[in-house]
Design goal:
heterodimer; A: 270 residues; alpha/beta; Rossmann fold; 6-stranded mixed sheet; 13 helices; B: mainly alpha; ABC transporter involved in vitamin B12 uptake, BtuC; 2 domains; 73% helix; zinc (chain A); transport (chain A)
């Protein structure tokens, strides 16, 4: 595994040279994505610091998910460069774990909860290696972290939305990545699941990992995240949540779609 | 001999050399088609294989003409199959290209390629009928398959091709499963989704080509799809679907070939497809979890549960039970007496139902989620539906356990 050196360095409490100089976990340079001839994301620069809990925030149709997918190479970029921990994206892609939106898959697919998590071990298993006991135990440990170990043998269609989201998170955990990209992980999940997910994400941050979520709930931004990226096709603002998640920036991002009365009620940085 | 005797003889591979070759070939083809077709089914691209199958026909015609021009009689099966594989590949790439590069959707691309290639093929076959050289008789058998005069070499071609297809399934099963289940996640992990899709279609194309001789291009899609659909009734695991579909395909091929050998003039390919369809029908009705009968039984049981629950809640509230089915259920369970007065057990159960109801009420408040609402049936233990922390959340909201409804 390519990232063991970095992990060891992190364990020793000393960041490796590349990261000590402040290399971002994820850096986007002038990224543009377009479906047809209307840009969904236009010339966005971003710099997500390593070991941060970051959120991409913006109105519906602002290109938040597209931004994430383009950074991952799922949708093609018209222009722009992606750098991960100071390395070109392709060399460092194995250090990234992606948690797609729940609605993006067919939950009637013939597969069990544990099988989905084992997909996270895809790199380790390769094409032919058999799933052994240690793989199964690793997957179960990831399920346990999201509170789903009792559900390992269930067909995935029998789960509630929140439980499906937890399984997707467990699959990402199984990858043992350094950078976690999540697309609306809290959309339509129950309160207990939201708590469970945020606890896992915070434990990742404590373990020196980096987390970046597409996030839609403005009320929880300050509690959950320390770095925000406000986008509406273009980048509006980026920086520490404490100085960036401000009424002015929100107004600029949401325009008329967010009544100022609503902004007044939000928990904003003190 | 009666037809049954001949069928049994054919099953034991004792019905003559040709019949034995056909049965073995059809069985092998069925295994390869069932296992390979599973991924097509899981990726929801069954109809692409129909376009690919129809796109084989021009290749058959052109290969025949080329072989005749080179001085042969044009009947070499490997030659014809090579030609069909080439034109099917062109058809497949065209479908891909149209769907990706133009504004047309994949179904339009499939329709266009399927009909145009098939039309070209029919024109070529007609032209070939007028050629003075070569042995053109029997070329049209590629449409519906024909097993008359099947040679040892033909069986070898099917066996080798089928073996290669199974090898491809073994090698590509993980990437193909990942792409079928969650293509975006697969792409994020660096899998080339388009290449894996092409490899999957290549696998299907290979099966189609070796199936031309026995089943023919019109019906081969059935051998790719029906076993997978049938297998899905019996299991919830991808690898089991692949194995069961392979087995069902093999059984269909072998049985179908034996059946068609048991009387003269019964076409092999269509019979194989009908056998596969028979297995599908059996599964549709009898499968334990996903079958129609199981669903009916489940629905009936669910209905009884609902009535039992409603009845118990009515008892708990001291209301009269009026619905005849509810009365029957409660009577049978010994919850009420003949005069509709609740028994001792009935009173206790009613109190318990009321308490359960309260727990679910909280659960519904917390889980603004249809999947949970759908699981509410009043009898399923909440522990099997919710995770421990979710139940803890409910207990937190209920507060200290208080004696609800009298009985504990």
């Amino acid at each position: 595994m390519g990232h063991t050196v970095l992990e060891l360095a992190a364990d020793g409490g000393k960041a490796p040279a590349a990261e000590a100089g402040g290399a971002a976990a994820l850096q986007l340079a002038e990224m543009t994505v377009s479906y047809g001839e209307k840009p969904a994301v236009f010339s966005v620069d971003a710099r997500i610091p390593a070991r941060s809990m970051a959120a991409i925030i913006g109105p519906n149709g602002a290109g938040k998910s597209t931004l994430l997918k383009a950074a991952l190479g799922i949708v093609p970029r018209l222009s722009g460069k992606v750098t991960v921990f100071g390395e070109p994206f392709r060399q460092a892609r194995h250090r990234i774990a992606y948690v797609p939106q729940r609605a993006s898959v067919d939950w009637d697919f013939p597969t069990r909860v544990i099988d989905v998590v084992l997909m996270g071990l895809y790199r380790e298993l390769g094409l032919l290696r058999l799933v052994r006991r240690r793989h199964r135990e690793a997957a179960l440990a990831c399920l346990d972290r999201v509170g789903m170990a009792d559900f390992a043998e269930r067909q995935i269609g029998q789960l509630s939305g929140g439980q499906q989201q937890r399984v997707f998170l467990a699959r990402a955990l199984a990858q043992g990545a350094d950078l976690y990209l999540l697309d609306e992980p809290f959309a339509g999940v129950d309160a207990a699941t939201e708590k469970a997910i945020i606890a896992v994400l915070k434990s990742l941050k404590e373990a020196q990992k980096t987390v970046l979520c597409v996030h839609h709930d403005l009320a929880t931004v300050i509690d959950y995240f320390d770095h925000v990226l406000l986008v509406n096709v273009r980048k509006i603002a980026e920086g520490p949540a404490a100085t960036t998640f401000t009424a002015d920036n929100l107004q600029a991002t949401y325009g008329g779609r967010l009544a100022s009365a609503h902004i007044d009620q939000l928990k904003l940085p003190a | 001999m009666t037809m049954v005797d001949t069928f049994l003889t054919a099953l034991m591979l004792q019905a003559g050399y040709n019949a034995a070759l056909v049965a073995l070939g059809a069985g092998l083809l069925g295994i390869a088609a069932g296992a390979g077709g599973t991924f097509l089914f899981l990726r929801k691209r069954a109809l692409v294989s129909d376009a690919v199958a129809h796109a084989t026909l021009p290749g058959v015609g052109i290969a025949f003409i080329v072989m005749v021009l080179l001085g042969g009689d044009g009947r070499s099966l490997p030659g014809l199959l090579l030609g069909s594989a080439i034109s099917a590949t062109i058809g497949l790439l065209l479908v891909e290209w149209v769907a990706r590069r133009t504004r047309l959707a994949e179904d339009a691309a499939i329709g266009a390629v399927l009909s145009v290639f098939f039309g070209i093929g029919i024109v070529l076959l007609t032209v070939i009928q007028t050629m003075s050289r070569g042995k053109q008789a029997g070329l049209e058998s590629f449409l519906l398959g024909s097993t008359a005069g099947m040679l040892y070499q033909d069986a070898v071609v099917i066996a080798v091709g089928g073996g290669l297809a199974l090898l491809a399934v073994l090698l590509l099963r993980r990437p193909m499963t990942l792409v079928a289940f969650d293509p975006e996640y697969a792409a994020a992990r660096g899998l080339e989704v388009r290449l894996i899709d092409l490899a999957m279609m290549g696998l299907v194309l290979g099966v189609t080509v070796i199936g031309l001789k026995i089943v023919g291009l019109i019906l081969i899609v059935a051998m790719l799809i029906i076993p997978a659909v049938t297998a899905r009734f019996w299991t919830d695991r991808t690898e089991h679907v692949v194995l069961v579909a392979g087995a069902l395909g093999g059984v269909s091929g072998y049985l179908g070939a034996a059946l068609s050998a048991s009387a003269p003039g019964i076409p092999t390919g269509p019979i194989i497809v009908l056998v596969a369809f028979g297995l599908f029908l059996l599964s549709l009705f009898l499968a334990p979890k996903r079958g129609v009968l199981a669903a009916l039984l489940r629905h009936r049981r669910f209905q009884l549960r609902v009535h039992r629950r409603q009845g118990l809640l009515a008892l708990a509230h001291g209301e009269a039970v009026l619905d005849p089915l509810t009365i029957r259920v409660l009577r049978r369970d010994g919850m009420i007496r003949g005069d509709l007065v609740p028994t001792e057990a009935g009173r206790a159960r009613a109190a318990k139902a009321l308490r359960d109801e309260r727990r679910w009420e909280i659960a519904r408040k917390i889980h603004q989620d249809e999947a949970i609402h759908g699981r509410y049936d009043g009898l399923t233990p909440i522990e099997t539906v919710l995770t421990r922390d979710e139940i803890a959340e409910i207990d937190r909201r209920i507060g200290r356990p208080v004696v609800a409804g009298g009985a504990a």
